[in-house]
């Protein structure tokens, strides 16, 4: 029995080490001083400590004192988001080719947990940028990445991830928003719901059904689109409060060309 327990613990430890020490291939390879051929050092590197300390100082001195007031008013925390951008605490996954730091998951988590200590609502609004950016980082072409990710390194802009709908939350296959190809463009019609940074975003990543066959497998039924927030036909719907400073919106997309 004890041998079985030991094997289980060793397997779990190895899995944890791999998760912590391995970044996604889409990010820049940054040499780390906390690995060695003789094992794994759990101490943070000097660079990681700097990320953590910067985020902790910002959370304690600027986010935490203001969080209660944002809870009370429900105002979107523009000044704090701008300050976080100035400190380099937003858009951490954007690759170096687009002007970003290209941080891996573990490094970004060090920043995220410190900011969430100050206010989970404000941090969720900040982290939603990474959610909206990730499809572009993973699947966008060079032109799309330069255009939409590059601009976020030049100004404190937000983006949003438009997937969920009134009838489609975790069940992505139930999405009803349609994108029909007409000539050289797609025309999008549908409604999205519970969109973090809705109404505040500079652009949206939107998932829509492009295959009208209801029996089509999910992998061949949907297409991702990048939609500029100032595109004609986007209508901001009702506001839903979750953590006050974290504001979710419904959005209507009517005859959006893309």
Automatic annotation (TrEMBL):
InterPro entries documented for this protein: Acyl-CoA_dehydrogenase, Acyl-CoA_DH_CS, Acyl-CoA_Oxase/DH_mid-dom, Acyl-CoA_Oxase/DH_mid-dom_sf, AcylCoA_DH/ox_N, AcylCoA_DH/ox_N_sf, AcylCoA_DH/oxidase_NM_dom_sf
GO biological process, one term: medium-chain fatty acid catabolic process
Cellular component terms per the entry's GO annotation: mitochondrion
Pathway involvement of the protein, from the record: Lipid metabolism; mitochondrial fatty acid beta-oxidation
Highest taxon, organism lineage: Eukaryota
UniProt domain Acyl-CoA dehydrogenase/oxidase N-terminal: residue ranges: 45-153
The keyword Transit peptide belongs to this UniProt entry's keyword annotation: yes
GO molecular function per UniProt: flavin adenine dinucleotide binding; medium-chain fatty acyl-CoA dehydrogenase activity
PROSITE patterns, A to Z: ACYL_COA_DH_1 (PS00072)
Catalytic activities: octanoyl-CoA + oxidized [electron-transfer flavoprotein] + H(+) = (2E)-octenoyl-CoA + reduced [electron-transfer flavoprotein]; decanoyl-CoA + oxidized [electron-transfer flavoprotein] + H(+) = (2E)-decenoyl-CoA + reduced [electron-transfer flavoprotein]; hexanoyl-CoA + oxidized [electron-transfer flavoprotein] + H(+) = (2E)-hexenoyl-CoA + reduced [electron-transfer flavoprotein]; dodecanoyl-CoA + oxidized [electron-transfer flavoprotein] + H(+) = (2E)-dodecenoyl-CoA + reduced [electron-transfer flavoprotein]
Cofactor: FAD
This protein's record includes keyword Lipid metabolism: no
Domain Acyl-CoA oxidase/dehydrogenase middle, residue spans: 160-238
Pfam families: Acyl-CoA_dh_M, Acyl-CoA_dh_N
Entry keyword set: FAD, Flavoprotein, Oxidoreductase, Transit peptide
Designated name of the protein: Medium-chain specific acyl-CoA dehydrogenase, mitochondrial
Organism: Potamotrygon motoro
């Amino acid at each position: 029995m004890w041998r079985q327990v030991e094997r289980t613990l060793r397997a779990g430890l190895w899995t944890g080490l791999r998760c912590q020490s391995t970044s996604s291939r889409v990010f820049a390879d940054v040499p780390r001083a906390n690995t060695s051929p003789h094992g794994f050092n759990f101490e943070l590197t000097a660079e990681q400590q700097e990320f953590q300390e910067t985020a902790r100082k910002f959370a304690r001195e600027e986010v935490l004192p203001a969080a209660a007031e944002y809870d009370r008013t429900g105002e979107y925390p523009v000044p704090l988001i701008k300050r976080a951008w100035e400190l380099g605490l937003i858009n951490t996954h954007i690759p170096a080719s687009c002007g970003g730091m290209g941080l891996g998951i573990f490094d970004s988590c060090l920043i995220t947990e410190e900011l969430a200590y100050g206010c989970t609502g404000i941090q969720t609004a900040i982290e939603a940028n990474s959610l909206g950016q990730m499809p572009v980082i993973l699947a966008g072409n060079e032109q799309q990445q330069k255009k939409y990710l590059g601009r976020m390194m030049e100004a404190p802009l937000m983006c949003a991830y438009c997937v969920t709908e009134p009838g489609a939350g975790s069940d992505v296959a139930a999405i009803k928003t349609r994108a029909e190809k007409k000539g050289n463009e797609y025309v999008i019609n549908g409604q999205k719901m519970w969109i973090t940074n809705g109404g505040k975003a500079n652009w949206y990543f939107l998932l829509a059904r492009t295959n009208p066959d209801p029996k089509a497998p999910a992998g061949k039924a949907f297409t991702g689109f990048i939609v500029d927030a100032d595109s004609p036909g986007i209508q901001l719907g009702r506001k839903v409060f979750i953590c006050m400073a974290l504001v979710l919106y419904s959005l209507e997309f009517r005859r959006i060309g893309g």
